[in-house]
Specification:
Elements: E1 13-26, E2 29-36, E3 50-53, H1 62-72, E4 79-82, E5 92-97, H2 113-118, E6 125-132, H3 141-144, E7 147-153, H4 157-169, E8 175-182, H5 191-200, E9 205-211, E10 224-226, H6 231-237, H7 242-246, E11 249-255, H8 259-268, H9 276-286, E12 294-299
Parallel strand pairs: 7-8, 7-11, 8-9, 9-10, 11-12
Antiparallel strand pairs: 1-2, 1-6, 2-5, 3-4, 3-6
């Protein structure tokens, strides 16, 4: 992650959490509502941040964790999950996608995400560590810009959903444009909630979808486009004047080239194939948006 927007560093706190609600967003993605025990102190976080969960606390995962640690030669790290909730909401919420294991494609099977998505019914207790991450709006965002462009892929929607909900709830003047790419209409996370926010705040939120595997995306409305996010589409959604573009802030979240991809590229002496983040950043640079105006959060 990189960018110029920073937040005050605070010591992470371990909370006892109880799952008080679980909603399947898609067949492989679930939102878990967590009630955090007050013993650790008040729950304070910024929209767009994340929390960590240590897989070693789950006895059911011990055999797989031991297997993966033997294969990798290192201890399995904690997993980070972006917050889908905003600070004004009652419960802390995370949205987790169960990544599949694809033989010949995936290097290792996922460890924690299948359990969280499919094996964490209401009442499940766990320890979580929060809250971290600089993927937040600056406190003076209304003075820095009039327009925030969110460019996301798939589950990259999660922290941006939190950011948008928070900004609208607080009555910030800045306008938000959300450009989301997914395979199909059914893959779009928080679709109904986002469009309800757009209807409630038409002057401050605009949503555009790019669908890559829908044969006829136009049936979902005029703001659904076919194919991947292109430079032309990004330019269409940016402010038209050069002065306004100079102050544009971009929040981009999605998959990027992984360290494993880079190692493989070095071994085979072939360039790593750009993924969502590298492609989008290239388009933004071509349109004159510098790195200091781009906030990134990536996943592999």
């Amino acid at each position: 992650m990189s960018g110029v927007i920073t937040t005050e560093r605070k010591r992470a706190v371990v909370y006892e959490a109880t799952v008080v609600g679980l909603r399947m967003e898609t067949a492989d993605t679930a939102t878990l509502q967590l009630e955090l025990a007050p013993e650790a102190g008040p729950v304070e976080y910024r929209a767009g941040q994340y929390l960590n969960i240590d897989p070693h606390q789950f006895r059911a995962l011990a055999p797989l964790a031991a297997f993966l640690e033997e294969k990798k030669g290192r201890k399995e790290p904690v997993r980070a999950y972006s917050l889908a909730s905003a600070p004004h909401e009652r419960y802390v919420a995370i949205t987790v996608k169960d990544e599949p294991y694809l033989p010949g494609v995936s290097l290792y099977p996922p460890l924690l995400s299948p359990l969280l998505v499919h094996g964490s019914p209401v009442g499940t207790r766990m320890k979580v560590m929060g809250f971290m991450g600089p993927y937040i709006l600056p406190p003076d965002v209304d003075e820095r810009t009039q327009h925030v462009l969110h460019v996301i892929a798939g589950s990259g929607m999660v922290p941006n959903f939190s950011l948008i909900k928070d900004a609208l709830h607080r009555g910030l003047r800045v306008r938000h444009t959300l450009l989301a790419t997914n395979k199909t209409w059914e893959d779009v996370l928080f679709r109904e909630e986002l469009h309800a926010l757009e209807r409630a705040h038409p002057e401050r939120l605009r949503i555009v979808h790019a669908l890559t595997r829908e044969p006829d995306g136009s049936r979902f409305g005029e703001r659904v486009r076919q194919g991947r996010i292109s430079q032309a589409l990004l330019e269409e959604l940016m402010p038209p004047s050069p002065e306004a573009r100079e102050n544009l802030l971009v929040y981009a979240c999605g998959p990027a080239i992984t360290p494993w991809d880079r190692r493989k590229a070095l071994e085979t002496r072939t360039p790593a194939t750009p993924r969502f983040m590298e492609t989008v950043i290239g388009h933004l640079h071509a349109l004159g948006v510098g790195d200091k105006r781009i906030k990134r959060e990536v996943y592999g």
